[in-house]
Amino acid sequence: MKIGEVAERSGLPAKTIRYYEDIALVTPKRGGNGYRRFAETDLHKLTFLGRARSLGFSIEDCRNLLALYDDRSRASADVKAIAQGHLARIESKLAELEAMRATLTHLVHECAGDQRSFCPILSDLAAGIEQDAD
Amino acid sequence: MKIGEVAERSGLPAKTIRYYEDIALVTPKRGGNGYRRFAETDLHKLTFLGRARSLGFSIEDCRNLLALYDDRSRASADVKAIAQGHLARIESKLAELEAMRATLTHLVHECAGDQRSFCPILSDLAAGIEQDAD
DNA sequence: CCTTGACCCTCCAGTTACTGGAACCATTAT
DNA sequence: ATAATGGTTCCAGTAACTGGAGGGTCAAGG
């Protein structure tokens, strides 16, 4: 398969696939014309990568997951550890975003949003935020 | 004030402050020795920036907010619009992360995480995820 | 045989918001 | 005089691509 077909079937842009080759996540062969030639296993790996990336795994996580995927003798615990680490990061990001949302929702709610210039959002950004939501 | 004191009082690293000068968010004067000399208003702006950044506003958002902050005649609606746009982005990011968390929690829960090699996490990454949580 | 168009190639630069480090100058304390 | 501290600039790197320039390959049509 050439890159266009792999892109189509994996759902990844061709540019991304070339990039993944650059960083050695996939290693397609080359034809006499210099074109990349992808095997089915390459397609599987790329699809795997697309799924893992869409779940927010980092490229390095993906690299590790791919290695584990290839290793028939690894323990499921190794995979679970990566997934749990990632889950923990997601949860801490969620907490952070929820705190931002709470503060911003409060500020937006307080601000009249009209033609007048008084604006609690700017006041609070300038002065610090200590009050709690109403 | 020199940069060290401003860094201390604003809570921002000196490097970050130099960067903010680079991108023209602050424009401190210079002393005869080449050192930056910050006025109180610079400190206020930097504190403002630190707060806004910690709430996840982008640098460009901050640039707009600072301009509005400086503009005594702007309408609070202009500020509110930026905050609401940011809030919307936060909420969509939250939804995305919550979806990831749901899928990952499910997968982690399914995986025994022991010495055996069978691992639903890898299977699902390889095969696609269509089942719902149990 | 030539051209057109779709595809492929490589390489460079830009994105976001900093951060680290090298090499060097100024100030202050001993 | 010297050493420590803190200031300066500039370059490079981070994550994970994305866009674009400039050019090669291939199949079909005139």
TrEMBL record, chains A, B:
Database matches in NCBIfam families: CueR
Coiled-coil regions listed in the entry: 80-107
The protein, known as: Cu(I)-responsive transcriptional regulator
InterPro entries xrefs: CueR (IPR011789), DNA-bd_dom_put_sf (IPR009061), MerR-type_HTH_dom (IPR000551), MerR_fam (IPR047057), Tscrpt_reg_MerR_DNA-bd (IPR015358)
Record domain HTH merR-type: where: 1-68
Alphabetically ordered keywords of this record: Coiled coil, Cytoplasm, DNA-binding, Transcription, Transcription regulation
Subcellular location: Cytoplasm
Gene Ontology CC terms, in alphabetical order: cytoplasm
GO molecular function: copper ion binding; DNA binding; DNA-binding transcription factor activity
Biological process annotations from GO: positive regulation of DNA-templated transcription
Source domain of life: Bacteria
SUPFAM superfamilies recorded: Putative DNA-binding domain
